Amino acid sequence: MEITVSQEQGSAAVAVISISGHLDGQTYQDLISKANEIVGAGAKNILLDLSDLAYISSAGLVSLHTIALLTRGEAPPNLEQGWSTLKSMDSTRDGGLQRHVKLLNPRPEITNVLEMVGFSEFFEVFTDKQKAIDSF
Questions:
Q1: Residue closest to 28 by CA, chosen among 69, 61, 54
Q2: CA 46, CA 68: separation in Å to the nearest integer?
Q3: Are 1 and 32 in contact (CB under 8 A)?
Q4: Are 68 and 101 in contact (CB under 8 A)?
Q5: CA gap 120, 15 in Å, rounded
Q6: Mean pLDDT across the chain, nearest whole number?
Q7: Helix (H, G, I), strand (E, B), or coil: what is residue 114?
């Protein structure tokens, strides 16, 4: 997996994290670390550009959930707890649509996974980068 970060300015500052390759058990902690670094540096809004993401596993879903928690100022789940971490995502989904994390251009196979687990109700998805930036 490759991660690149850029800064964009709409009505608010937006950190754009572009992810390519596979987001899985081998790479998900890298994405969480990068997001934690960005949030720690003061970023409040994150646009995850999934245009070049070819695969996402359950661990990848945990990383998306963790990033949402970070931007809301909530404690991230204990990643060492495995399956219980994934199951805990359901209880925090009650927070509704995320205001500070949005997704850009997921491929159809990624969209299918997001819809299957209910993340399409949790994350706003955009196909136009400028509209996504302006939505924050």
A1: 61
A2: 9
A3: no
A4: yes
A5: 21
A6: 89
A7: helix
**Residue 6 maps to which CATH number?**
3.30.750.24
| Domain extent at residue 118 | 2-134
**Domain count of the chain?**
1
- The one-letter code for the residue type at 127 is T
Q: How far apart are CA 86 and CA 59, in angstroms?
A: 8
Asked whether 1 and 17 are in contact (CB, 8 A), the reply is: no
Tens place of pLDDT for every residue, the chain, 136 residues?
A: 999 999 999 899 999 999 999 999 999 999 999 999 999 999 999 999 999 999 999 999 999 999 999 998 887 766 665 545 555 555 444 457 889 999 999 999 999 999 998 888 889 999 999 999 999 9
